[in-house]
Design brief:
The complex is a heterodimer of chains A (about 170) and B (about 500).
Chain A lengths: L1 E8 L2 E12 L2 E6 L2 E3 L1 E7 L2 E6 L2 E9 L5 E5 L2 E8 L18 E4 L4 E6 L6 E2 L4 E7 L2 E6 L4 E6 L6 E2 L4 E5 L1
Chain B lengths: L3 E4 L3 H14 L2 E6 L7 H5 L2 E4 L12 H11 L3 E3 L10 H9 L2 E2 L4 H7 L2 H10 L15 H11 L3 E5 L9 E3 L5 H16 L4 E5 L5 E9 L5 E13 L2 E7 L6 H17 L4 E9 L5 E7 L6 H8 L3 H9 L16 E8 L1 E2 L5 E2 L2 E2 L2 E3 L6 E5 L6 E2 L6 E9 L2 H14 L1 E3 L5 H7 L3 H5 L6 H7 L12 H16 L16 H12 L3
Parallel strand pairs in B: 1-2, 1-4, 2-3, 4-5
Antiparallel strand pairs in B: 6-7, 6-8, 9-10, 9-12, 10-11, 11-14, 12-13, 14-21, 15-16, 17-20, 18-22, 19-21
Helix pairs in contact in B: 3-4
Classes of the chains: A mainly beta (about 170), B alpha+beta (about 500).
């Protein structure tokens, strides 16, 4: 699997291409085109042990509120933004679910062409709520969180303005 | 001996007391506020009862609720820990009314010694040297300012009911007096419900050295030696050690005798700490008495081999002090650092939150007193003390290297901690030489931070690999499943479900 990772430290930030491959069950790693003698395992939910050219590193990872990865290696701290070319949803990937009641706003002026849920329905994060057509494109508006559709304000066939509240999910 | 003890506290000290009870074969009763249901002290206790909402004034400070629990559960004694009600004479009084033994001094001894002014008056009567200043609270700021001028600046304003640096202000000159007075009084009112302050001469660069005393109800009173607590940030201790690098056997004896004299004069029974300031010429001045167990008591335990909590319980049960000596000589060296959930890069603001991962150090000469565990959410409602990491060894050097080693092993993910601060302190040349005083840490923090050590070659690549591996295993369900054997279900989804469960009534 191939990742584009932007790594930031106190010194600055830089993008790298990291490729993980499996050879005989072992991780083989290519960073920016260089094949490295590396072995990595996730030893606990938030810790990865990396042996790189015989040197042993232990890295603790967690999500920051912004969805970036926070990495700690002893006294050294990094933050990383991981972009996975195979995931079509790109940068939102892996962002933490938002908390609290969410207003679902119309992202652009258009027409509500289809409701995919009803008020009171339970929805998963990323599940489509309704479809808004604008500039001849149908856009599925998705739920930012798992929860319940508290109110559905939009009606099929209705014209909406950008920023208009379409639904509440809690 | 007691059958069942109510532990009227939370966090690491509740766990510490609970462990002592277990070793003595005494039943334990914990109390908890709404946000402490999942706390370690509740999990470890044999019985546990809720005492109200998160705010401590509605829970841990409610004497009536504690007494209800004591009666309901049939406790015959209560241990107050430190903080909360530990130095409030109303608690031992309420205990006496309910027929529950309070593990600590009497209400009268607390009153005679606990407040800073009362303690100072007692010290003068017992011929224990004190810092020049008033021992009476001063009601009018004009009066206090007059006095400050006559004593020569700098002076320090301190809350009558104070502790932990709250309601305390150093006043460098006359122009700063009025605002310092307002700050001290309002802080004291907020922290202790008592705005009264007094004035004291400010000693530049003193050491804070305290004597642990123990008195039984049969007239024995002994000193267990000193603790050096000069490493403080804004009057809050962060590193403590024993013995002090400046205390000679002769001075130890003199300070110990002074502390014992004071305790006798106040009719003190049980564990107490007499705090002194020691100036550059090794003159010592009485500061205040803490009529309770101290946060830093493990330091004394490690150099004396005694269990102070078990001693407290035994003395409260009427036992005699088991020593054949009046003061003791410490063996080896011990040092404690206080790990707080706070962010050193953001002005040490508290950093509550969920502990996602944690690796606790072990090994020779290491002790960890704590009330936390992986998966626990540090509440925002209380003191952010997470753990006390204590090291001991044959010498100060060995102790410091053990502590450094243990700090390197210690990792906690999900919240910010002040671990980095200790890395800096424990490698500072002045600290290593023992050249410290109560302003030393604030001065150190005001200096530009030394450049961080260069990461080991490969650290950045290792971080990149870790990010990729972790991402492929934990991404939010959008990444096609990998064939890697280490990949489990999305932990983020699981985490969300667990969190919802946390909120179930």
């Amino acid at each position: 699997m191939k990742f584009e990772i932007e790594l930031s430290s106190a010194e600055g930030k830089k993008k790298h291409i990291v490729e993980l491959a499996q050879i005989n069950g072992m991780h083989s790693v290519i960073i920016d085109g260089r094949l490295l003698d590396a072995d990595a395992i996730q030893v606990s939910p938030n810790t990865v042990s990396v042996i790189l050219g015989g040197q042993s590193f232990e890295i603790n990872l967690s999500r920051s509120a912004g969805g970036k990865l926070k990495l700690q290696c002893g006294p050294h701290e990094y933050s990383a933004e991981v972009m996975d070319p195979r995931a079509w949803r790109g940068r939102n990937l892996g962002a933490l679910e938002v908390a609290g009641r969410q207003e679902i706003l119309a992202p652009m002026p258009g027409k509500v062409v289809r409701l995919l849920v009803a008020a009171g329905d339970a929805v998963e994060s990323g599940q489509g709520l309704l479809v808004v057509e604008a500039m001849k494109m149908q856009n599925e508006i998705r739920s930012p969180k798992s929860g319940k559709v508290e109110r559905l304000l939009a009606k099929e066939g209705q014209n909406v303005n950008a920023g208009e509240v379409l639904a509440w999910v809690d | 001996m007691f059958k069942k003890i109510l532990i009227a506290n939370r966090g690491e000290i509740a766990v510490r007391v609970l462990r002592a009870c277990r070793e003595l074969g005494i039943q334990t009763v914990a109390v908890y506020s709404e946000v402490d249901r999942a706390s370690l002290h509740v999990r470890l206790a044999a019985e546990a009862y809720p005492i109200g909402p998160a705010a401590s004034r509605d829970s841990y400070l409610r004497i009536d609720k504690l007494m209800d629990v004591a009666k309901k559960s049939g406790c015959d004694a209560l241990h107050p820990g430190y903080g909360f009600l530990a130095e409030n004479p109303a608690l031992p009084r309420a205990c006496a009314d309910s027929g529950v033994t309070f593990i600590g001094p009497s209400a009268e001894a607390m009153e005679a010694m606990g407040s800073k002014t009362a303690g100072k008056q007692l010290a003068r009567r017992a011929e224990v040297p004190t810092v020049p200043g008033t021992s009476e609270p001063i009601e009018k700021p004009e009066e206090a300012q007059e006095l400050a001028r006559s004593m020569d600046y700098p002076i320090v304003l301190k809350a009558i009911a104070g502790g932990g640096g709250k309601g305390m202000r150093v006043v460098p000159n006359d122009t700063a007096f009025a605002s310092a007075w307002r700050d001290a009084a309002s802080e004291a009112l907020n922290a202790f419900g008592d705005p009264r302050v007094f004035v004291e001469k400010y000693l530049p660069a003193p050491r804070h050295i305290e004597i642990q005393i123990f008195a039984d109800s049969h007239g024995r009173c002994v000193s267990l030696g000193e603790r050096e607590c000069s490493i403080q940030r804004r009057h809050q201790k962060v590193v403590e050690e024993a013995p002090s690098t400046v205390i000679t056997p002769d001075l130890r004896r003199k300070m110990g005798e002074a502390a014992v004299r004071l305790a006798r004069a106040g009719g003190y029974v049980n564990a107490g700490t007499v705090e002194f300031l020691v100036d550059a010429d090794l003159n010592f001045y009485f500061l205040e008495v803490n009529t309770r167990l101290q946060v830093e008591h493990p330091v004394t335990e490690q150099v004396t081999g005694l269990d102070l909590v078990k001693l407290q319980i035994a003395i409260a049960a009427g036992h005699r002090l088991p020593f054949a000596w009046e003061s003791i000589t410490p063996r080896g060296h011990a040092m404690e650092v206080r790990l707080y959930a706070e962010d050193p890069d953001n002005n040490f603001f508290p950093s509550p939150g969920k502990i996602l991962a944690r690796h606790a150090p072990t090994g020779p000469g290491i002790r960890l007193d704590e009330g936390v565990y992986e998966g626990w959410t540090v509440p925002m409602d209380y003191d952010p003390l997470l753990s006390k990491l204590i090291a001991w060894g044959n010498s100060r050097e060995e102790t410091i290297s053990r502590l450094r080693r243990a700090l390197n092993e210690y990792s906690i993910t999900g919240i910010r901690t002040n671990v980095g601060l200790f890395r800096r302190i424990l490698s500072d040349q002045e600290f290593l030489r023992g050249e410290i005083h109560t302003n030393w840490l604030d001065e150190l923090l005001a200096r530009p931070r030394p450049p961080a050590p260069e990461p080991h070659p490969g650290t950045e690549e290792a971080a990149l690999i870790a990010a990729a591996v972790w991402h492929s295993a934990n991404a939010n369900g959008h990444v096609p499943a990998s064939t890697d054997a280490n990949v489990g279900p999305s932990r983020w989804k699981m985490d969300g479900r667990l969190r919802q469960m946390d909120h179930m009534p």
